[in-house]
Amino acid sequence: MAESHHDSSPAHQPFIPSSQQPPEMSLLPILIGALLGILFGASSMYLVLKVGMTVSASIPVAVLSITLFRAFSRAFGVRKATILENNIVQTTGSAGEGIAFGAGVTMPAMLILGYDLNYLHIALVAVLGGLLGTFLMIPIRRAHVVKGVKNLVYPEGTACAEVLISGEKGGTTARTVFAGLGFGSLFALAYQGLGLFKDTASRVFGKWYDGGNVAAEVNPALLGVGYVIGTRTALVMGAGGILASLVLMPAIKLFGANATAPIYPATALINDMSTDQIWHDYVLYIGAGAVAAGGIISLLRALPTIFGGAVRGLAGLRGAGGVGTTERTDHDLPLWVWGGGALLVVIALTLAPSLKLNLLGALLVLVFGFLFVTVSSRLTGEIGSSSNPISGMTVATLLLTSLIFLALGWVTTPYKIAALSIAGVVCIASSNGGTTSQDLKTGYLIGATPWRQQIAILVGTVSSALVIGLILLSLNSASTVYAKRDYPGYQANVAALTERESLRGPDAAHDTAEYRVLRLAEPRDGVPAGKYLVDDAGQIRYVVDPGINGRVTTRDTGEKVTKYNAPKAMLMSFIVDGIMTQKLPWSLVLIGVFIAVLLELLGLSSLAFAVGVYLPIATSMPIMIGGVVRWIADRTARRKLTEAEATSGPGVLFSSGLIAGGSVTGMILALIQLRPAGERFVKAINLSEAIPTLSGSDLFSILLFLALAAVLYLVATERFLAEKGR
Description:
Number of strands: 7
Helix content: 55-70%
Strand content: under 5%
Strand order of the largest sheet: 3-7-6-5-4
Number of helices: 28
Distance between the termini: 43 Å
Oligomer: single chain
Radius of gyration: 25 Å
């Protein structure tokens, strides 16, 4: 009934009719799109390691494309790019963010569990997962993008189409995005490179409220994230941080102050623990339980959509051979391309030795992949990519896979790696499936050719996937600390330690010797779990503290190091290791689970709140400030923005620039220090010792951050950098 009603409605009229064939896909748009995809993929990887989330890159990429092509036209006297060429840039460039999210959510879990992670492993998971997501989305394009046109609005995809149409008519410039890039880059350089002010302003309360603490990282990227995700989500995340730092930590201190023995999983007395230790040994597990429960609840809420979407997806396979009609705007890639491509992905997954998958694992990827790509596509159409519960889908995949492996008795290290590989491929496929669906919606509205868009996103997927592993490993290496440790009471069995390693990064300048590698999965004889370097006499010389989820924030030379909390990856490591070893502190995890249930009963988003509980308050506080700026700007703007303008308005564009500028600058500064010459350069430009009063002041740091927030407000309300024609 519903389908016949849809068929009787007026035919869709795209901005560029099917009868017209303007230039659409060529080498230059593909190349620019791939480069922008890598740029936003890099900033997204930085974000997902810091806060476990990313923001859609489609609209800023579209705006940058329009402006860059206009600049080319003026500079070289060539024709202006068509709307379809700008759309190809946007389609190619949008892949980077989805790939970064999927890889950043799952792959660092291997590092957290103490396993080595190499580039080939990440590249295989990223490339194969990204390709699978696009291939599985192609046969359901008509069911979701074409036939679902009334029910599936694709908010970001529709807003992106309006940006492209505005650009075709002469509007939309990238001045706001470039301004955000400039402000974000300079601000990050000022505190991370020049050391002009503190990177984190903090206050730990005294004995009158032992354990209570507040802090804020003055990171422009986090301010931008808070603005983009919106006031409600940002405030809910901030509330989670307040619960952790001003309720849970003081409560743990209060009730554990008189404990005469360490309380599991901590190895020290609560009365002797710092707020950072309490967070890591107790609150982290509570937050992980809340995040897992929130993800599963969001998935359960989507069950009707899951079943309905799967049925529609299977129905969409009929007649999905690629031709459909004779119209240009209805041509998909043929069946032999996407069907054969999906089959080759499954074969590659089975044969790739580093992924540790067997035939069952490959089949699980195919089943979960098709199910969650379908669900992701539909949810992106209903609620947008920002609210798409990809994390919940990944948690469900990892839970079910781990339980299946446990039932089969597969609990050794190779099977843990296999479970994480399955979850990684499915996560990236689901994320990229939603991105593909959103891009195809944009193309449907403006009159693009589907098969050309599908080729563009495949190219963007592969180019971003090949780079994202280098970024992940480089960020981890740049922040890895080799800290001297001495445990005279511990004697390692050197005969069993066959792996050898030298110090890397900045610490290598002080010690070039080669050591044996010791890995402890749990504390032993007073030595905490972790990775250590041991000399030939069996004595521990260094603890190898990773950049991702590490705890040592200062090198032996006194240099501060940025660490990445990787909240979603930590959750994945808890799930796979907790199920297969059955050693999780379940009492703490269940406290988090019931916090999530309580929030859901109150009608609040438990997932956003749970992420706030998990993250240090220093991370959630600037996000909350960004949300407050959005609230004030929305109520004091000189004119009321339409829904589409709110999604692609000046505040969002400036925030996107802040995110990219702050993230990429921080990443570049970290990578520079991998080389001794780079480390010396960064030390040379650091002025913190020359101005100790300002560089050590919490107040000065906060005032500068609030000044940046004020600039964001002025841009968002069009009192500064207002675009022409607005």
